[in-house]
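sanity check this record:

:::
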Amino acid sequence: MSYQPKRKIIIDTDPGVDDAFAIVTALKYQGFEVVGITTVAGNKGLDYVTKNALKLVGLLNADCMVYQGAHAALKDLDKPVDQSKDAGNTHGFDGLGGIKLPYDLSRLSEQSAVDYILATVEQYPNEVEIMALGPLTNIALAIQTEPELMKKVKTIWSMGGGVYRGNVTPVAEFNYWFDAESAQITYSIGQDVDIYMFGLDVTYQTYFTANDFFFIKQEGGELGRHFYDMVQDYADSYWKNRRITGAVIHDLVPVIYAIDPTISNPEDVYHCAVSVSCEPGLVHGQTVVDLVDRHNYLKNSYVVINADDRKFKEVFMEIVFGEVADLYKKYVVS
């Protein structure tokens, strides 16, 4: 058997319960080398999300550092830090459902997220893949600083946007709404870098049921109990707002797809033009996606719009919980 080098991954994130599921999966997957985790304000303020990233690194004793990034959206970086501009209490007061986990500040680098991204891409040109699980502020800042260097990123896997729906507004998803300007800047390099967009159209097809969470708690050991505890506020919000007995783990979708793209059919992945509205008001953060390719716009993204819910969760269970996944397949989804 020939040796396959591990793929070099930077996780750019604003944890976030769904980010936590995604980060743990990426750290546990044997085919990834998570070389660093960069944080960005989004689900919660920068201090919270950075501590949460440190907690997850400590939980798995991961061999990587955390790099603190942008404290606000691109257009607000010169303003005082506003910790109230976030996703509210959807993810609990601290972003991880209030679970008690230690964190080690020695794992927090003095190097900024943007400097780290640029240095890593320079060191490993055309090898680095960025899992972009939050607003795209750090990536946009890196593009503005070194546009030609950032064209040497191999792939950007972005959870954000939506073709047919929004969640903050009728047409805008949270990550791209939070910093629409950065999303638009990121897609500006999409003819040189493979950018995959995982919007609400696909993520809402992959929700975890109450039975899934119960199984994780019962059979997932200490890690499973942590997942179960952190998801309670998040699941409560889904019941109160959408009458769903479970929750959508949005940020897990790009990670699982990057590991196993067969969770989606090839015909459900569109190579097309994506633009993000930066206009104020109702359309702010809307993704305009040319799925029908009638207008000769330059194609700058691969947009994934469907996924197999069962296969998606089975891959997650296998990576994170190993042989326990057989019980899941036999008793929960059989």
The chain is about 40% helix and 15% strand. The longest strand covers residues 32-39. The chain has one domain: 7-332.
